Amino acid sequence: MKIQENVPLAPYTTFRTGGSADFFCVAKSEEDLKEAVAFAKGKGLHVSILGGGSNVVVPDGGVRGLVVKMEMTGASFEENKGSVFVTAWAGEGWDSLVAETVEWGAWGIENLSYIPGTVGASPVQNIGAYGVEVMNVVESVRAIDTETGEARTFSNRECGFSYRDSVFKSQKYAKYAIISVTFRLSREVKPNLSYKDVKEYFAKKGIALPTQSEIREAVIEIRKGKFPDLSKIGTAGSFWKNPIICRDHYTGIAAKHPNMPSFPVAVPPESPYAAEGGLVKVPLAWILDNVCGLKGYKKGKVGLYEKQPLVLVAEFGATASEIDTFAAEVAQTVKDKTGIEIEREVRPL
After folding, report:
1. Most buried one in 36, 138, 143, 294, CB count within 10 A?
2. What is the crossing angle of helices 94-104 and 212-226, to 10°?
3. Is 216 a domain residue?
4. Which of 16, 142, 164, 216 is catalytic?
5. Residue 164 is a catalytic residue
6. What is the pTM of this model?
7. Do residues 241 and 343 both lie within one domain?
8. pLDDT score for 269
């Protein structure tokens, strides 16, 4: 394993922007990662982990310490009593894994087709799309403490999953570099058509019970219609989370915008929100388009994608600072119009 100095990080991200890493290496095995951690520990360096670079913005000033790009790949399948346990290395391409599970007839993540990035990032973000979240199929996560080099296995519960979140994004557990993820999938045929776009896709085709391959094809087609070509423009996909707000807040906004969609969010009876009518998730793309009028809005080299305003796009050559300033302007507009404070899904490296 080779450790390099002052390596530009822009080519390793889908935004294609940002500065250099003080130190950089590629880990193709668990041993490589442990060697990198030992190097960093010896020099007192902070360790940052980079996967597919599809959900990060690299600061213009670069990243201090050691950046480790995870490229350990491969997956194993083990069937047991109707369940299929799939263990994949962190550097495995996410969509490559989904394709392999479809070939196996292992149900559970076909609705998550065509999401860019790597397996290792999937539990960090608790990636989700078209009615499915990865938290529902993660069995365990194996990780290395980048401060000590010790390995640890996290159960599903210990991952602390919630909407687009997990313990791995917290200050306490951010030091863990995910090595592999084990998923519990199923041989049982159970297509998830709960999402409107997927349901309408098959209704138009007159297909009542689609196969796993057909669901994957549908999701890929839908996503291609909503997301830009990464070879032509920089993006990290959905830049913000869909906000979750109390029902009273939603009712106030809906009084002015009666067509505003909402989706109930389960809350325990002891939650203070239970007495306030509970919580609802609202689609930020709808707000950006119908309330804020920002669909297709552009300023300089940065803008909101004309087909899906939740997606922030940046021309190649845009700076991280320009992206940050534009995103802050959008967030302020949403707050001014609705009182909602939106949270970024894309994070700085």
Report:
1. 36
2. 160
3. no
4. 164
5. yes
6. 0.92
7. yes
8. 67
